[in-house]
Amino acid sequence: MIWASAILFDLDGTLVDTAGDIAAALDALLVERGHGALGEAVARGLVGDGARVLIEKGWRAAGAPAPAPAELDALTRRWFELYAADIARRSRPYPGVRETLAVLKARGKKLAVVTNKADEPAAKLLAALELDSFFDAVVGGDVPFRKPDPRHVRVGLAALGAGAADAAFVGDSPNDAKSARAAGLPFLSVPYGYAHGPVEALGADVALTAFGDLQGVLA
Q1: What share of the chain is helix, strand, coil (3-state, %, to 5)?
Q2: Among candidates 65, 66, 81, which has minimal Cα distance to 26?
Q3: The pLDDT of residue 44 is above 90
Q4: Cα gap 47→167, rounded to integer Å
Q5: Is the backbone peptide bond immediately before 93 cis, with ω within 30 degrees of 0?
Q6: Taking the model in full, what pTM does it have?
Q7: 46-56 b/e with 16+ CB inside 10 Å = b?
Q8: Are 7 and 110 in contact (CB under 8 A)?
Q9: Which residues lie below 8 Å from residue 101, measured CB to CB, with a gap of 6+?
Q10: Interatomic CA distance for residues 192 and 212, integer angstroms
Q11: Residue 24 β-bridge partners
């Protein structure tokens, strides 16, 4: 059992399955630039390493020449526009997320999101899915450092007025695991997400079998 009064959560791949909307924006961008759409099943498999890497992978998968750095910057900005315009059409909280957050909140836990997603789309997504009311703080990717930098996690702790000894981090990726450990927090892994590898490789302090397990694991 993990003793924690404050719980920090990753967003994409942990709280919400966002891959469908992320993939749709990639396909829309590819078509806009004269390339063929990959289809959600293929595009979904490219999600998990940020927008720039997503676009680079998407261009390769479509058989298109790799974008030059300046073009990649422009493509990334355009992808964000396409994604933000319809951010929650396909995205849904994972099973048990809403119910478990409600239980944790009722127990007096302080909850925060710490995500590499930019502040505005992170807030927009949480509001669209009516998850925003559960969280005392949302720390997005507009800070000068992002996971796996532990300072990102420490900003989340500070926003909750909590210390590492009183907190835990829940996530789905190596970046989540590395940043949590370096910040001195126990790391709890969800059994899904966008890690592109076996969840066992994350070396979590607790490997959840379902999100709802948090209700019993967090004292």
Answers
A1: 45, 15, 40
A2: 81
A3: no
A4: 28
A5: no
A6: 0.94
A7: bbbeebeebbb
A8: yes
A9: 111, 131, 134
A10: 13
A11: none
Q: Record the tokens describing residue 162, joined without a space.
A: 């909590």
Q: What is the mean pLDDT of residues 165-193?
A: 96
CB–CB of 82/25 below 8 Å? yes
Question: Residue 91 in contact with residue 127, Cβ under 8 Å?
Answer: no
Q: Give the active site residues.
A: 10
The amino acid present at 11, given as its one-letter code, is L
- Classified as helix, coil or strand, 125 is helix
**Residue located via tokens 């300072």:** 151
User: What is the sign of the dihedral through the CA atoms of 197, 202, 207 and 210?
Assistant: negative
How many Å apart are CA 189 and CA 201, to the nearest integer? 10
Pairing of strands 16-17, 92-93: antiparallel
Contacts of 176 (CB under 8 A, 6+ apart): 10, 14, 147, 148, 169, 187, 189, 202
On the question of pLDDT at 200 being above 90, the answer is no
Phi, psi dihedral angles at 81 (to 5 degrees): -60, -45
